[in-house]
Amino acid sequence: MGSVLAVVSQKGGVGKTTTAVNLAAAFARRGLKTLIVDVDPQGAVRYGVGLRRDHSIYGFADYLSGECALRDVILPTALPWLRVILAGTVSDESDHLAYQSLVAESDLLPELLETARQRCHIVVVDTPPGLGPITHKVLLASQHVVVPLQCEPLALQTTPQILRGIQSVVEVNEQLILDGLILTMYEPGNPASERVVEYVRQHLPANIVFRQLVPRSIAAADAFAAGQPVVTRTPSDPAAQAYVNIATSLVERMDG
Ligand SMILES: Nc1ncnc2c1ncn2[C@@H]1O[C@H](COP(=O)(O)OP(=O)(O)O)[C@@H](O)[C@H]1O
Ligand SMILES: [Mg+2]
Known about the structure:
The chain has 256 residues and is α/β, with parallel strands linked by helices. The chain has one domain (3-255): P-loop containing nucleotide triphosphate hydrolases (Rossmann fold). The protein is 45% helix and 14% strand. It is built from twelve helices and seven strands. A seven-stranded mixed β-sheet has the order 3-4-2-5-1-6-7, sandwiched between helices. β3 (75-76) and β4 form a beta hairpin. α1 (16-29) crosses α12 (238-255). The radius of gyration is 17 Å and the shape is globular. The two termini are 13 Å apart. The structure holds adenosine-5'-diphosphate (ADP) and magnesium ion (MG). Magnesium ion is lined by residues 16-17, 40, 42, 44.
C-alpha cells in the first residue's frame, strides 16, 4: 500500500506546484510508481510536469463531473514511472465555484486517492492555496503532508494558520503526518531571506522543518517555463538537488 502526500500552503505563489512536480519527478526517477493529482482548479501542474505533446486537456474535474472515465484522465509523462491527473477543463473556466462544491459534496476525491495508493507507491496531490474545503478533503485522505514556505517576510504571518489547520485535521485523521515545512526560493546572502530561515529555525520544532533549503534558481524558473520539472531538466541545479534530497528523506520515512 502506497502513501498519499499532500502539498499544501496558506498562500499562493510560494512554490507549491514546483514542489509537487519536482518531488513527484524525484520519486519517479528512483523507480517508484508515482501519480501526481492536481486538484487546484488553477491547474498549474500541466505547465510543469513534463507532459507529452498533444496531451488530453481532461482531468480530475472532468472525472468528477462524469464527463470522463478515470482511465481517460490518467496521462503519461516524459518519465516512465510518473503519471498525472491534471485539474482538467475547469482550469480554463473563470468560475470555479461549481467545481469546489462538487468536490466538497462528493466522495470521489477520497475514493480516487484511496484507489490510487493501492496501485502506486506515492500519490502526490497539488492543492489550491489555503485550507478550504478541497484541501481539507485531501488532508483527510492523506498520510503525509509537506508545506512549502517561501523565504520572504510575509510567509511567517501565515504559517500559524496552516499549522493549526493541519493539527485540526490530525485530530480526525490520525494517519496524517506533517513531514515538514519546506523553505523555498531561498536566496543566500539576502537578509530578508536569511531572517525567515533564522526565525523558522528558532521558533518551530526542528522535526517539522526540513533542514534542506530549496534555493531560488534560474534553472528552476526556466524549467517551469519549459514545462518540465527541474529535477529532470537540470539535475545538477541546486534547487533540483534540494528536491531530490527532500524526496529521499520522505521515502525513508514512508518506508521506515
Ligand atoms: N526554487 C525556485 N527557484 C526559482 N523560481 C521558483 C522556485 N520555486 C518556484 N519558483 C517560481 O515561483 C513561481 C510560483 O511557484 P509555484 O510553484 O507556481 O507556486 P504555487 O503553486 O504555490 O502558486 C513560479 O513562477 C515558479 O517558477
Ligand atoms: Mg500552484
